[in-house]
Amino acid sequence: METNDQSQLDPRAVNATSVKAEDGNEESKEPETLNITAASSNPKMFTLPWNQPLAMWPDDLLVNLPRGISRHVVRFVRVGDDVYAMKEITRSVAEREYELLRRLRKLDLPTVTPIAVVTGRHDKDGNPLEAMLVTEHLKYSLPYRALFARNLRTDTAERLIDALAVLMVRLHLAGFYWGDVSLSNVLFLRDADAYSAFLVDAETGDLHANLTEGQREYDIDLARTNIIGELMDLSSGKLLPGDVDEVEVGNRLVDRYHSLWSALTDVDTFNPDEMWKIEKRVNKLNELGFDVDELEVKTAADGTHVLVRPRVVDAGYASRKLMRLTGLDVQENQARRLLNDLDTYRASTWRQNEDLEVVATDWMREVYEPTVRMIPEEYRSQIEPAQFFHEVLDHRWFLAENAGHDIPMAEAVRSYVKNVLPQYKLDKKAMKDINADADSGVIDDEFTYADDSARGQGAEGEGAAGEGGGYNPEDDPDAAVWSH
To answer: Residue span of the signal peptide, if any (predicted)?
Structure first.
């Protein structure tokens, strides 16, 4: 993947990978032998049946995860202790997407992790097969169709849109032009009462030093159009709550994007005696979940005003603070909730004057770790510990409100596990319906779904490799899958 401003790209992106995708109009001859470029040392990666069409891979390799409509054949494959998403596409597209995902990951952007690009594939008779893009399954994540299948809050569509707006702003700030923004090309992770969105399909994207306003607005307009269509499709399948206005939700994305972009990039004008407003601006960005690495402060031409603009912003303010204090690597809203509970613990133990690092160590040992150890074994691969902790805190507050007094944490956990946790499972019928929709979307493989009884019912991605939901590889392939 080359860009017109290649020399101006962040050096982390330029040096992200040895794979340099070719111009799609000048593709060289397909390799005659198997060639695997992998960012993984998993030895089982090299023992997979690369000489078979992906749709024909055996059942014992496949992982049953919720899947969505896709143009390509995608399967989730168990490779040793890991679960990878395999997408079968042309070599030029596979190499380009692998290279671009590597670059985005080096820039610490929320995307699936690229594992390998596999070219030079041939069947046992020597006939060429399409190349393969391999990405790591994003643990605990779900495609949007699976999210709408069970137990949703009425504002779920709005929360997903808010997450997508944050993702778009972060990608645009880094110079990434998406070109195909939709819910189908995103995976969602629960993040306290909100969601975090991750890019899973970069086929149409491109990376620049900076984006023009026209490029950004095109992405926004396309996103609005696609989202309205996707929500209407959900509505026709009776998966969308009846009070959701699809057009209003699409418009919300535009409003949320512009509001966040403005907060992160606008220039503020202050009088020289109002420099305290700089701290107010930085605090506002912190509240939105962003750190400010650089501020540009200069005097206006008239000499009577000061102009202030953030030059470098980076998401993850609360999550980095929590990581420093506790070593926990969690989503931003989860981090805020855990930090709030840490502050509550600090106040309740009368330790406001002690170093926060010391208090955090005791909070981990006395509060957080005993709570998350109570996650039932069958759910440990389906819900993040930090999300479990957050939801238990909510449930504890609810119990205390009803009882009129405080509830011990252990009692709240037991009540949550018994009365709430089971409600979030995606049953077999819902899984079957979701996967039936997914089967209808593949257009580029003659073998696909010709005889399901003769092949595995592998998972096909929601628009790209890397999608799916919480899964325990030791469970039965038809086991229920977590959904919220």
So the answer is: none
> Where would I find the beta strands (DSSP E) of 249-394?
268-270, 290-299, 306-315
Distance between CA atoms of residues 306 and 310, nearest Å: 13
**Residue linked to tokens 């997450």:** 163
- In this structure, of 33-47, 101-115, 147-161, 237-251, the range with the lowest mean pLDDT score is 147-161
Note every long-range contact of 352-358, with CB atoms under 8 Å and residues 24 or more positions apart, other chains counting: 356/325, 357/325
**Helices marked H in 378-462 — which ranges?**
385-403, 409-419, 428-439
Contact 329, 319 (CB under 8 A): yes
Residues 6+ apart with CB under 8 A from 324: none
Instruction: Report residue 137 as tokens.
Output: 């399954």
Residues of the chain by 3-state class (helix, strand, coil), percent to 5: 45, 15, 40
Sign of CA dihedral 35, 36, 41, 46: negative
Percent of the chain whose pLDDT exceeds 70: 78
Give the end-to-end CA distance of the chain in Å, rounded to a whole number: 37
> With b meaning 16 or more CB within 10 Å and e meaning fewer, what string describes 67-91?
bbbbebbbbbbbbeeebbbbbbbbb
Question: pTM value?
Answer: 0.81
Q: Amino acid letter at 150?
A: R
Cα–Cα distance, 197 to 211 (Å, whole number)? 21
Q: What are 437's two structure tokens?
A: 């929709």
Residues 275 and 308: their CA atoms lie apart, in Å, by 10
Of 308, 246, 321, the residue nearest 277 (C-alpha): 308
